[in-house]
Amino acid sequence: MPPTKKRSIHIHHNRAWCKQCGICIAFCPEDVYVDKGGYPEIVAPEKCTACLQCEMMCPDFVITIEVTKEGGDEQG
User: Fold this and answer.
1) Engineered SS bond to 72: which of 5, 6, 18, 47, CB 3.0-4.6 Å?
2) Over its length of 76 residues, how does the chain's per-residue pLDDT go in tens digits?
3) Is residue 75 part of a domain?
4) Global pTM?
């Protein structure tokens, strides 16, 4: 059986560009974000499934989701 590759998901939020619209909070199906003084705060990054709803819906390109694969067959 081949080794499985684990995904690592990193959420990047550029607060300087954020206009506090709340779209990312509203569209996240896993409740990764909460409203913290008008800005989205990432409170549960481990729940992120990388569905990219927050990234796609953000009108100001504030959020980017980075998915990397770890482990697996590193030979060759």
Assistant:
1) 5
2) 566 678 899 999 999 999 999 999 999 999 999 999 989 999 999 999 999 999 999 999 999 999 998 765 444 4
3) no
4) 0.77
